[in-house]
Amino acid sequence: MYKQVFLLALLFTIICLPLTSAETYFADITIDVDQNGFVTIDGITNYLGLLEKNTENYTSKKQSYWFLNITKEVNFTDFIYVLTLPESSSINYIKSSGSIRIEEMQGKIIVRGFGENEQLSIQVQYQIEKIAESEFAKFDFVFLILVAIIIILIAVLVGIFIKERNKSQELNEEGFNFKGLNQRQKQIMKLLIDNKTPLTQTDIQKMLNIPKAAVSRNIGALELKGLIEKEQIGMSNLIRIKKP
Asked: Has residue 6 been placed in a domain?
């Protein structure tokens, strides 16, 4: 009886052995790890459950160190993977079945691996480096310098604009420079320019309704500045514009 049971068990094992050994696995996958340790595995494989999106099952963290462990304890006839770690990462430790190659692309570490007739296993300890505060301080300093330069340039341009505008306001339409003249001197000059003919001091006094002494004093100042000239005719002085 026991001999028959043993023979049946042996026969069952012989029949099922080719079936179990015939099961093979393959994988051609990409593995992306984000800043928070979430892992997305995409690609082609016949290993059930290997492909996942945004899972935390493969990562753990202790202080500033992250640990990634993707290990499948079955043999793969062949596997290829491309592992991308988060930006600004640095690898402290890595162990993988098969062969690997590590490279950097656009600030991210890329691990490429492949193997045949062995388990799929990837173990990586890494850190995500933070931008040093000094870098932020340096950026802020440069930014402030640029802002200061822009403000200075704007101030200079505004100053030039105001200066040119004032200069243009000091020149009347005939091209005479009124800079440095007081209000009465400007009135006398405008009166002579508008009339386009010489006037006596008496005419200027009456037309502007200002004291005789003020007219005489301001005409003398304008003559010294070279803006007018006097011509004595009889008992009167004829005042005319001196062309520039």
From this structure: no
Given 64, 98, 128, which residue is the final one in a domain? Answer: 128
Tokens 């304008």 belong to which residue? 222
> Where do runs of H (alpha helix) occur along the chain?
2-21, 133-169, 183-195, 201-208, 212-224
Per-residue pLDDT tens digits for 80-126: 999 999 998 999 999 999 999 999 988 899 999 999 999 999 999 99
Residues 101 and 189 in one domain: no
Domain that residue 208 falls in? 183-241
* CA 145 to centroid of chain Cα atoms: 15
pLDDT in tens, 7-43: 555 555 555 544 444 578 999 999 999 999 999 999 9
| CATH number reported for the structural domain that contains residue 198 in this entry | 1.10.10.10
Alpha-carbon span 80 to 26, nearest angstrom: 9
Q: What is the CATH number of the domain that holds 119?
A: 2.60.40
Asked whether the whole model's pTM tops 0.70, one would answer no
Nearest-angstrom CA–CA distance, 99 and 73: 17
Secondary-structure percent of the chain, ordered helix, strand, coil, rounded to 5? 35, 40, 25
Tokens read off for 20: 């179990």
Count of domains forming the chain: 2
Residue 102 phi/psi, 5-degree rounding, is: -110, 130
